[in-house]
């Protein structure tokens, strides 16, 4: 059972489950964004943005001791008409979507050798997904990926992470005016992998961005999706699904920066946890700046705890600098597996194992439907079933 004195400030405990209360800290980071790693102090775990992260398990990504050994293979499969390039740090598209906001992201920017840029020409509507396979072959790697859509282009991109690696990376999404981009990022690493990444989306006028983050594998996964708007009328939907097993640390830290009028955002992340020392962290920051009149935003995080010994820290933050908005709200809830639902199904002749799968499947159904790629959806459902088998 977790002791209260070991829980970071702003958290509470319920039985064997640790649940974070709402934080009063501002959404702005302690250090200004920068491409220079020297502009960030080495974190010690007491900083607001690092207080939940097990730094000793990052294998040196946070303090500069992790030396790149080239342990990741990247393969891009794209439909006809899509351009795939390898470029240097001096390419104008690299880093255009946003600067690093912490030392690991800055280290990744400083250390990568070649960035991969995938470009979809303006007014091109793709019938098939662009698939980017990132496979770890052991060792340490730093990477940078850019996905660029021209005006009124439409595309679905699947980024699939597998294998074993210690990876720090930045991913940029550049959406031209009227473009529509759906990105599915799957973290299905081997048990010992470490993955830390910052995702930056720059959404153009009347453009639509949908991100679906799916996290299963890895020892430590820490992802930082961020959205900014280049002009009015932009929409962003950020969906996430994670299944945290014994000993795993999975952390998702989001920021939606509304600095432009008449834009929308919707955030829904759901997670399930099981096993001793399973630790999930969700930080949802939404900033509505003074100029962002007409903003419409909402964020939700829900967690389902399947066994004792798991811990959740869920912290929604909403900072509003203007009252001239359409709507703004947030919610966070963490609860145990509902035995009443299980009993209801079993009383109608459904075996316990199948009933358990139905309850958890129903919990995730809303997010699975957002993926829109049949083979990924099928793989996801199979993965959830396999995870549940481990607790039977």
Please report the distance between the alpha carbons of the first and last residues: 22 Å
**Helix percent band:** 10-25%
**SS strand fraction:** 35-45%
Q: Low-confidence stretches at least 5 residues in length (pLDDT < 50)?
A: 1-27
Main beta sheet: strand number and arrangement? 16 strands, mixed
Q: Which geometry do the CA atoms define?
A: globular
What does this structure look like?
This protein is mainly β and 392 residues long. Helices cover 14% and strands 44% of the residues. The protein contains four helices and 18 strands. The protein has a 16-stranded mixed β-sheet that branches. A two-stranded antiparallel ribbon has the order 1-2. The protein starts with 10 loop residues before the first strand and ends with a helix. Mean pLDDT is 88; it is low at 1-27.
Features:
mainly beta
């Amino acid at each position: 059972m977790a002791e209260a004195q070991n829980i970071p400030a702003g958290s509470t405990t319920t039985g064997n489950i640790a649940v974070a209360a709402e934080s009063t800290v501002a959404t702005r980071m302690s250090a200004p964004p920068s491409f220079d790693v020297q502009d960030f102090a080495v974190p010690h775990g007491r900083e607001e943005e690092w207080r939940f992260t097990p730094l000793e398990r990052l294998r040196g990504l946070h303090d500069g001791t992790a030396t790149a050994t080239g342990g990741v293979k990247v393969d891009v499969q794209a439909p006809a008409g899509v351009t795939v390039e390898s470029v240097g740090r001096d390419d104008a598209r690299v880093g255009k979507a946003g600067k690093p906001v912490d030392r690991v992201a800055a280290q990744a920017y400083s250390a990568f050798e070649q960035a991969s840029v995938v470009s979809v020409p303006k007014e091109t509507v793709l019938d098939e997904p662009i698939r980017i396979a990132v496979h770890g072959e052991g060792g340490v790697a730093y990477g940078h990926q850019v996905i660029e859509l021209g005006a009124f282009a439409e595309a679905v991109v699947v980024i699939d992470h597998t294998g074993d690696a210690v990876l720090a990376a930045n991913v940029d999404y550049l959406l031209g005016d009227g473009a529509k981009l759906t990105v599915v990022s799957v973290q299905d690493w081997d048990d010992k992998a470490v993955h830390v990444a910052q995702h930056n989306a720059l959404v153009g006028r009347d453009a639509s961005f949908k991100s679906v983050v799916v996290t299963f594998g890895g020892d430590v996964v820490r992802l930082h999706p961020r959205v900014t708007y280049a002009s009015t009328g932009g929409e962003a939907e950020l969906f996430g699904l994670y299944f945290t097993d014994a000993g795993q640390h999975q952390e998702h830290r989001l920021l939606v920066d509304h600095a432009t009028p008449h834009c929308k955002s919707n955030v829904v992340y759901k997670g399930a946890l099981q096993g001793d020392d399973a630790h999930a962290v969700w930080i949802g920051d939404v900033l509505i700046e003074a100029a962002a009149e007409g903003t419409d935003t909402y964020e939700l995080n829900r967690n389902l705890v399947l066994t004792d010994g798991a811990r959740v820290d869920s912290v929604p933050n909403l900072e509003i600098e203007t009252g001239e908005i359409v709507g703004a709200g947030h919610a966070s809830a963490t609860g145990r597996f509902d035995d009443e639902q299980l009993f209801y199904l079993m009383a109608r002749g459904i075996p316990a194992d199948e009933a358990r799968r139905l309850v958890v499947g129903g919990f995730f159904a809303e997010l699975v439907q957002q993926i829109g790629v049949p083979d990924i959806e099928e793989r996801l459902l199979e993965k959830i079933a396999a995870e549940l088998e481990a607790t039977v």
